[in-house]
Amino acid sequence: MYSYSFDYERASDAQAAVASLTADGEAKYLAGGQSLLPTMRLRLAQPAKLIDVTRIAALKEIRVDAAMVTIGAAVCHADVAEHFDIRRVLPGLAELAGNIGDRQVRARGTLGGSLANDDPAADYPAAVLGLAATIVTDRRRIAADDFFVDMYETALEPSELIVAVEFPVPQTCAYEKFRNPASQFALVGVFVARHADGVRVAVTGAASSVFRSTELEKALTADFTSAAARSVTIAPDGLNTDLHASADYRAHLIPVLAARAVERAR
């Protein structure tokens, strides 16, 4: 049976977590563990130490007002989905969180862990990018447009810790995804958000990382209707082809899902 030893540390605050990781380059932060632990079981990662950040009170906070929803990095998906004020002020985000994985995943997986991992088919990156959110770390603020770099790659520095995410409240928004029935990950997911200065459309599951569709944004800023979304043609260049779907199929799905999101957001 495969096994190896590692140390476990429960961080008392963000500063202590960062100091511990800085002191040990072979350590990793542990949030919900929904991505890290399977990676360890597959021997793709062997951290010398796991620094648990899920008990840090400041990372579990949720603050909601009419203009902004701020969610701590250690808040689990289920808590976002079920939070009364998030459901009232930003229902599109709550609905997205409520459809991540299954009940067990939603009870353990965290917002910060999802963003730091940046799985190309994860749901939260689409909301972060579509809502023009700001990722707040222990040392700086990173705009969503600057955060996602490539497959499993973000702008985070080696020991940098996400502490919260600030979501501006749009005029309306919605998320639609065509899911893998086994994993519940998005073969394609589209988050549409109508802001005062225009529409943002973020696409996940279709490429190596989440991205904005400028073609759909232009069409929907001019005419926020499902017909306008369906009229857009997305080129398959640069989109994923794998055992689940071809690039052409994903290109076809993007405007279809955008149209459905617009219908739900109106």
UniProtKB/TrEMBL annotation:
Keywords on this record? Answer: FAD, Flavoprotein, Oxidoreductase
Top-level taxonomic group: Bacteria
Q: Which residues form a coiled coil?
A: none
Single GO MF annotation = oxidoreductase activity
Entry keyword Flavoprotein = yes
Q: Record's Pfam families?
A: FAD_binding_5
Q: Which InterPro entries match?
A: CO_DH_flav_C (IPR005107), CO_DH_flav_C_dom_sf (IPR036683), Diverse_Substr_Oxidored (IPR051312), FAD-bd_PCMH (IPR016166), FAD-bd_PCMH-like_sf (IPR036318), FAD-bd_PCMH_sub1 (IPR016167), FAD-bd_PCMH_sub2 (IPR016169), Mopterin_DH_FAD-bd (IPR002346)
Positions of the FAD-binding PCMH-type domain = 1-172
Q: What is this protein called?
A: Xanthine dehydrogenase family protein subunit M
